Amino acid sequence: MTPVFSRLRTKLTVLYAALFGVTLLLMSVAVYTAISAAAQRQVRAELTASGTVFDRVWELRDERLHEGASLLSRDFGFREAVATGDGATIVSATENLRRRFSIDQVFIVTIDGRIVGAEAGALSRDAAKLTAAFENADDPSGVALLNGQPYQVMSAPVLSP
To answer: How far, in Å, are 7, 18, 65 from residue 14 at the CA level?
Structure first.
């Protein structure tokens, strides 16, 4: 073979290899883009569904906690215990509520700001922070962030008999 044909064959081989490489690269980019877009759509759909479920579960728990707090606050025996300062009855009632709803802390805040109704040692400084966070609120319920942790706060007024 003459050097002219050898060079031509080499050039054509390099050209075909480069064309194949570019085609393969373009196809890979197109496939990656399509897969990435499909994955993003799937993740968005799943997050939206999870968010809807979370919102509903939160709403149901909020309703249950509100009903439990309201029921306890309207109970005549509990109201009498709060009015007379019967600590044993208050602790028993709040502990029952805490266990029934798997609540971390249940306590009563008196009009003068004292915190009562918690088992000895069970009430941390967080309780005081929680009451301070909702002190001026019209509805002292909601979510409070303490020490980087979210807490769901539910309250109901206890009117002494």
So the answer is: 10, 6, 74
